[in-house]
Amino acid sequence: MSEFSHLNAEGNPAMIDVGAKTISRRTARARSVVTLGPEIMQHLIGTDISTKKGPVFQTAIIAGTMAAKRTDDLIPLCHSLGLDNCQITITTEGDDAIVSCLVSTEGKTGVEMEALVGASVAALTIYDMCKAFSHDIVIKETKLMEKTGGKRDFHRE
């Protein structure tokens, strides 16, 4: 069994020292699924939902991108990373909005948290912008779908 990585020898929270690691290409993709329901999905016109606050999915993409870039401000032991890329897409399947956040950088540590934060904040923005239609919205899951670079790659279907 692996040890928790963010604890020092005394068991206190600690940032990981990545100073000795080599720089490599790091990517991660996370996904959030937001169930909006038919009451909200009836407002879908083309590829977006229009509200008094503006276009839902376009606003969520901007919010998720901003959040991914500020992950180290939100998650206490994350390293500050300059992201090379952050791409958020939102598609619909039935009553669900599927948020995908792909992040990449050249660095000494991975970007999993940036991808997860980006997808999460985009999902929360969808909730915020649609709650005037209904509060019966469920953010069902947020999960890492894949990562490359570092000690081991990861991929989930």
From TrEMBL:
It is an enzyme of class 4 (lyase). One of its GO terms (molecular function) is cyclic pyranopterin monophosphate synthase activity. Keywords: Lyase, Molybdenum cofactor biosynthesis. The gene is moaC. The keyword Lyase applies. This is cyclic pyranopterin monophosphate synthase. The keyword Ribosomal protein does not apply. Residues 15-150 form the Molybdopterin cofactor biosynthesis C (MoaC) domain. It catalyses: (8S)-3',8-cyclo-7,8-dihydroguanosine 5'-triphosphate = cyclic pyranopterin phosphate + diphosphate. Catalyzes the conversion of (8S)-3',8-cyclo-7,8-dihydroguanosine 5'-triphosphate to cyclic pyranopterin monophosphate (cPMP). Its EC number is 4.6.1.17. Pathway: Cofactor biosynthesis; molybdopterin biosynthesis. One of its GO terms (biological process) is Mo-molybdopterin cofactor biosynthetic process. InterPro entries: MoaC (IPR023045), MoaC_bact/euk (IPR047594), MoaC_sf (IPR036522), MoCo_biosynth_MoaA/MoaC (IPR050105), Mopterin_CF_biosynth-C_dom (IPR002820).
